[in-house]
Amino acid sequence: MAEYSDTTIVEMFRVGESKDFAFTLLVQKYQERLYWHVRRMVTDHDDADDVLQNTFLKVWGGLGGFREDAQLYTWLYRIATNEALTFLKKKRANVFIPLGNVEYQLGNTLASDPYFNGDEIQAKLQKAILKLPEKQRLVFNMKYYDNMKYDEMSEVLKTSVGALKASFHHAVKKIEKFMLAD
C-alpha cells in the first residue's frame, strides 16, 4: 500500500466520497503508535483498546475541522493522552481507590497481564514508572519510549519546555532510585 502524507489524508477526509478510505489510512498509519502510548499509561490491553477506540471516535468527529496549526500526529497524540487521562480519572472515581493505591493496582494488572512479555528488568522498570506522579510518568513515557522532542511534548501537553525538562529529570532520578533499591 502506498504511503500517504498526513496532508493528503486530511484533504481526502474532507472530500466526502473518500472520507472512509482516508480515515482507514489514518488509523492504519497511527494505530500502533497510539496504542502503545495509551497502553503505557493504562497498562491493561483491554483498557488500552477501549481508550484507543474512544480516541479514534473523537478523531473522526474532529478531523474535518483540523486546523493544521500543529502536526497531525501531535494532534492525535494529544487526543489519545487526554482520553487516557480521562479514563484513569474515571477508573479512580468508579472504584473509589485512593490515589496512592491506583499505581499498586496498575502494577498488579501489569504482572497478571498475558500480553506483557517483558523480562524481570522490564517489569521492574514499568513498576518504577507507575510509581511516578501522573505528569512525570507521562513525560517520561513520551521522551523515553516515543522519543518525542520537548517542543512536540509542549504542544501536546500545553506546558513549557522548561517544565517538561524538569519533570523528565525528576522522573529519571526517581526511577534510578527505585531500580537501585532492593
TrEMBL record:
Give start and end of each RNA polymerase sigma-70 region domain: 26-92
Matching entries from CDD domains are given as:
Sigma70_r4
Residue spans making up a coiled coil are: none
Residue ranges annotated for the RNA polymerase sigma factor 70 region 4 type domain, each copy included: 124-175
Could you tell me which Pfam families the record lists for this protein? Sigma70_r2, Sigma70_r4_2
Q: Tell me if Transcription is a UniProt keyword of this record.
A: yes
What GO molecular functions are on record for this protein? Answer: DNA binding; sigma factor activity
Query: GO biological process annotations for this chain's record?
Result: DNA-templated transcription initiation
The alphabetical list of record keywords is: DNA-binding, Sigma factor, Transcription, Transcription regulation
Looking up PROSITE patterns in the UniProt record yields: SIGMA70_ECF (PS01063)
Has UniProt tagged this entry with the keyword S-adenosyl-L-methionine? Answer: no
InterPro entries tied to this protein: RNA_pol_sigma-70-like, RNA_pol_sigma-70_dom, RNA_pol_sigma70_ECF_CS, RNA_pol_sigma70_r2, RNA_pol_sigma70_r4_t2, RNA_pol_sigma_r2, RNA_pol_sigma_r3/r4-like, WH-like_DNA-bd_sf
Family per record: Belongs to the sigma-70 factor family. ECF subfamily.
NCBIfam families reported in the protein's UniProt record: sigma70-ECF
Q: Tell me the protein's name.
A: RNA polymerase sigma factor
Organism, by scientific name, is: Williamwhitmania taraxaci
